[in-house]
Amino acid sequence: MSALSKSATVAILPHDRENLDTGETILSIGIFVFCSISMMVTNKLAITAFPYESTLTALQMAFAVLLLLCFAFRSIHIGSLKDVLRWSMVAPFFAGMLLTNMLALKHCTLTLVIVCKTMSPIFTLMAESFYANVQVNLQMVASLLIMLLGAVLYTRELKVEHLVGVRWLTVNVSFSVLTRLLQRRLLADNRIDISKSGCSLISNALGILPLILTAYLTGELEADAAPQKLTSLSNLEMCFIIVSCVVGLGINYTTIWCQSLISATSMLVLINANRFVVILIEAFFLHRQTSDHRPSATQLAGAMVTVLGGIALAAPQRDVKHGTRPRHDERKEYQPAAPEEQSSQEILSV
């Protein structure tokens, strides 16, 4: 009887394990898609309801610090004060990246933000080519041309008032590139002894300080500015802000969760599929809530072409870095690239 039970257990366990893996993968993908789309939409709604970008970004980062200390304290490891001082160089760039992202959302449509951020790898590729010996092939050049064509189609009908947002998007791309390059440099060859949750904690905690200074210098902290607006928000508007904080933290976990269960190529497809969905949501629903104009058919086509070009650009880079491997090998070797993917608001930069 004992041998029979043991035999039955051995026969059942592999099937059960496969079902559990499939269920977990489907669950992680579903939650990631929801958080990713909600992140972009709620951030836009939050900055529309509470148009004080420095204060709003500081509130979101403070919320991230609080949740990290409460629920991820055991995973936080900081080797020494010297390591903290090294990583603290990231904080002002990280804060600048999040602040300029919020400013871009304030002055731009979500579709314009997606178009510009899809094109940001162009600048990263140029920067990495100086020190990482990245080879540019014909497929990359063709992808860049497709992205530029889509961007031209979208921006040709762009309203003048959105040009302010384009300037902030340009600054945001610069901050994003500098932040990523600095993080990669510090993380290379284990130069610092800090866990990823520890890096996220330091980036958010120290990043609050320049944001508070910016809020003070721009008059956001005056009694008739952000404090008064915060107390006069409706329940729905307050909900937008709270949900943007919660979803920001949710995207941290689900990004890493998905990356551990599916291939990097599948992850790229998910991220870009989410962008398509956000473009359609803004085109048919969100523009009424944010007072943005509804994009024309030409602009929609241009945005879609830009995202497709971004997908095509990423493919040859993966071939150079990882080679062509089966899906199960990709899953074993792919790891979260850097702590920025665990930071509360940077999914828009992915």
Question: What would you say this structure looks like, in words?
Answer:
By secondary structure, the chain is an all-alpha fold. The chain is built from 14 helices and no strands. The termini are far apart. It is found in: Membrane. Residues 341-350 have a biased composition (Polar residues).
- Low-pLDDT segments, ≥5 res: 1-12, 319-350
Q: What fraction of residues sit in β-strands?
A: under 5%
* Number of strand segments: 0
Oligomer: single chain
What attributes does this structure have?
disordered N terminus, 76% helix, EmrE-like, 350 residues, mainly alpha, transmembrane, TPT_transporter, 14 helices, globular, disordered C terminus, GDP-mannose transporter GONST4
